[in-house]
Amino acid sequence: MNPIKKTDNFIFQTYLRQGKAFVKGQGTTLIDEDGTAYTDFLAGIAVCSLGHCHPKVSQAIEKQAKTLIHVSNLFYTQPQADLAEILIEKSFSDRVFFANSGAEANEAAIKLSRRYFQSKGEKNRYK
After folding, report:
1. What are the pLDDT digits (tens) for 48-88?
2. Which helix (H) or strand (E) holds 46?
């Protein structure tokens, strides 16, 4: 069964798909089942902003996958500590917060905003 039919059979149709099945990507180019090339202007809805199959990204993913894929934030890992240090060096902050999802990140932003205004004596400022 081709990916379009399989998707239609097994995945909830929550939005209108465009009738193309991509099988490969390279940089900013996507290739469909027929070999037609398209420029990827959506970047995986902003999750592939580095392009598809960049050799350095692929090598970094492969290297990490051979060591450790994911560990809960309840535990410590060297890559997480290293990334936090890099982010702090390039920002205004002395701490970072890693979220597991956009919803979790938004919730944290709301809580941090409320906490900031509470620390300034504006406890009722939350809208």
Report:
1. 788 899 999 999 999 999 999 888 888 999 999 999 999 99
2. helix 43-46
Is the distance from CB of 55 to CB of 29 less than 8 angstroms?
Answer: no
**CATH assignment of 1-52?**
3.90.1150.10
Sorted by where each begins, the domain ranges of the chain are 1-52, 65-127
Separation between Cα atoms, residue 77 and residue 25, nearest integer Å: 31
Mean pLDDT of the chain: 90
Q: Region of 46 please: left (phi>0), alpha (psi -120 to 50) or beta.
A: left
> Which letter does DSSP use for residue 66 in this model?
T
